[in-house]
Each structure stands twice: as structure tokens, then as C-alpha cells.
Amino acid sequence: MSRPWTSTDRARCDEIVEGLTRPRPMISAKYLYDERGSRLFEAITRLPEYYVTRVEQSVMQRHAESIVASIGADCVVIEPGAGNCEKARSLCLRLQAREFVGVDISAEHLQEAVQRMSAYMPWLRARAVAGDFTRGMELPSDLPLERRLVFYPGSSIGNFEPDQVVALLSHMRALLGPGANRAGLLIGIDLPKPVHVLQAAYDDAAGITAAFNRNILEHVNRIIGSDFDPAHWKHRAIFNAQHSRVEMHLVALRPQQVRWPGGGRMFATGERIHTENSYKYALGDFVSLLAKAGFQQHRHWCDEQDWFAVIHAW
Ligand code: AVJ
User: Mean per-residue pLDDT for 211-223?
Assistant: First the structure.
């Protein structure tokens, strides 16, 4: 590695090792998204079984006029976890937004995506900010305080624990700035639906989600210097009805010793590492969380099967 070792690297290592050495081992879902993981996730969004992206897009398309009318003109769109900015691009176009700020941990790709946006919409001032919004990042100091809209599509909020969600939503509300002139929050929520649909969406026939899940081990190997062999782990997705969430796990296919500098642990056959929760909120439950975070009013739009909701809250 050519990059100098930083205190953030240290914190990441400590966090991962702490999770791996628990009686019920886990790795935070954010480590699914290295370079390869992000590419695999994009492949997931095109799978026939993964309805999430397609249904959200169809809701945004079908109800575009009404969504745009609800939000209003002259917006400053802020997107945490912007990635390739594809969803923001069509939103900014429809809204005829004034400014766009994409925030993401990996700034390189974001920078390119943001440049493509400005090329496509010459009137739009588009900028990239490197940062982790869950840890409180800084927006450009010259960003207008008026008419701010936080855009959080894709049901990404479903990856957080319900007890973190209110804090996160409050944080988003704080980004909107003071005053009554806020444009609000536009957020995508994946709703509860038949278990076989969820099961297929998180365990597709082509095995892309399995590769995506196993790839977390290669990412972890690079971060903490461990020697996980992904071939010795099987992908498992289960719907936990009690918590209304899809869980991803990696199941050990044989007994194995995994080592890393300064430690390691034994895994027995069948032992699992929990890698992701994807919560499915009933609309009313999510609206209560929004209210707790200070969003008193909302409008929402769904597909005809009520699989996915796009909510505008303010
Ligand atoms: C990016 C968090 C919305 O939970 O559906 C896709 C991630 N995990 N397949 C989701 C994911 C497995 C995805 N989110």
C-alpha cells in the first residue's frame, strides 16, 4: 500500500475486529461497497428478481408531476451516498434544480458522475463532497440555505437499525437549514411484501447477490490483513418476520481458522457472520419515525402493488 496509515484506518480495523470476535460475529454492511462490491450492487439493480430499483424508478416516473409539484421550484438537491448520481440526474432534470451536492465516501467516482451531471444540465451547479454523512459531514459553506432538498432514494435507510433511524432523519432535517423555506426530504422506502418475493430478491438465481455478500470478506482481508477464503463461505438470505427485515449471512462451509495481525478466531461448520439487515417498514411505522425526527407533514406515492413508497416529508 502506498497510502500512509491514518487514524480512520485504525478505527475501521478496530470496528471490524470487534464485530468478528463477538459470540455472534458480524461485519457492518457498509464494507460491502468496495470497488468490486459497488459494481456487483449495480449488477443486482438490473436483476429480474431485484424489484427495488425498478419499482422505485417506476413510482418516480409515474408520479413525477405530482412529486415535482409537492417539492416546488428552485431546489438545492443534496444526496447522501450519491454513488453514480443516476437517480439524482433525472430528479434534478424534472425539478429544474438550481444546485446539486452529491456526498459519498469514495470521492473519485462521485467527482466523475457530478461532472457528467453538469455537462448534461448546464444550468445546474453540481458539486461533489467526500464524506460520511452518518458521521456528520460538512457541506460547502457557500451552499444556499434556502430551498434545500435531501434526496435519499433506494431504501438505503433500511440498512440502519431502527433505533438509529430517528437520529439519522433528524440529522438530515438539520441539513435542510432553518426557516420555513425548506424543500424537505424525498426518501424511498421498501415496504413489507410476500416473503418469496423478498427471498428471491436477496438470493437471485444467477448468484450475483451471493458474490456481492462473499466479496465483503475480500474487502475485510484488505482492510485488516485477514486470510478469509470466500470459497469456504456460503451466502444465505433470510426474512426475519419478527424484525421485518431481510438478513444476509455468510455460513462457514467447513471448520476454519481465520488469522489477522494481532489475532484471529476459529469458525465451526455452519457458524455464521451477519453482514446486512434490510428493514422493510410499513408506511405508517416509517411516518411515525419521520414525525419523531421533526418532519410533521408528508405526501407519499406507491406502485399499484404497494411494494415501494416514495415519501416527501417536511
Ligand atoms: C442498497 C441497502 C438498498 O438492502 O436492498 C441489495 C443492498 N443487499 N441486495 C438493499 C442490497 C442485498 C440494498 N440497499
Answer: 98
